[in-house]
Specification:
65% of the residues lie in helices and 0% in strands. The protein is an all-alpha fold and 215 residues long. The chain has one domain. The protein is globular, with a radius of gyration of 24 Å. The termini are far apart.
Length: 215
């Protein structure tokens, strides 16, 4: 078989051109469609091409690596808090640890979301290579979004949670996991806050200029 040829199609597998379904025929996620629109006893994978199976395995390994690394990072942060002051000054670490954990928590939440989306799309036959960048970048974007939200809450710019809560390790970690899992909504909330603040700043500037002209 030459390099440009695809894997042979097994018997009973539809042609490649029929692999995609119209938007209205796309199956829903569990528990709406727990059978994945399969008949009883249909156990064969929809992804018969070796290149597709290999790509799915690579993405699964990447998500698993992110999960393992994040958990290891959280455990390492907990170990640092027990080290003597000669190695890591306790006051410095106490001030930095909530924000370090907020990024790790967001990374964990984003990784869990990517993992859930990966196995759902594979099971439903919706997986495609064009989503690879999304699955790779989502955990890191979630970490950044969680860190940003925690910083804004700690400064009082966003009155979602009190500074006392987000400045604790448990509070910062727990909230950031949730923010990371729902990072799309977190970014939308940040966008609304930015628009509101910028709109208010522009309104104040316009009012000040109008008052200066009247004087």
């Amino acid at each position: 078989m030459s390099a440009g040829e695809s894997d042979p199609v097994p018997e009973g597998v539809p042609p490649k051109g029929n692999a995609s379904a119209p938007a209205e025929d796309v199956p829903g996620f569990a528990p709406d469609e727990p059978t994945d629109e399969r008949k009883l006893g249909d156990w064969r994978s929809r992804y018969w091409e070796k290149s597709a199976r290999r790509a799915i395995q690579i993405e699964a390994a990447f998500v698993w690596l992110c999960l393992s690394g994040t958990i290891a990072g959280i455990l390492f942060a907990a170990i640092i808090s027990t080290m003597p002051d000669q190695i890591v000054p306790s006051q410095t670490w106490e001030s930095l640890s909530p924000f370090v954990l907020s990024y790790l928590g967001g990374l964990l939440g984003g990784t869990l979301f990517s993992m859930k989306w990966l196995y759902h799309t594979v099971a439903k036959g919706l997986w495609n290579r064009d989503r690879r960048l999304w699955r790779i970048f989502t955990p890191f974007l979630s970490g950044g979004a969680s860190l940003t939200v925690i910083l804004l809450c700690a400064s009082g710019a966003i009155p979602l949670f009190g500074p006392e809560l987000v400045r604790t390790n448990v509070g910062a970690l727990g909230l950031s996991v949730v923010f990371g899992y729902f990072s799309d909504r977190a970014f939308s909330s940040l966008e609304r806050v930015a628009e509101d603040n910028l709109g208010l700043a522009r309104k104040r500037k316009a009012t000040g200029q109008q008052n200066a002209k009247e004087k």
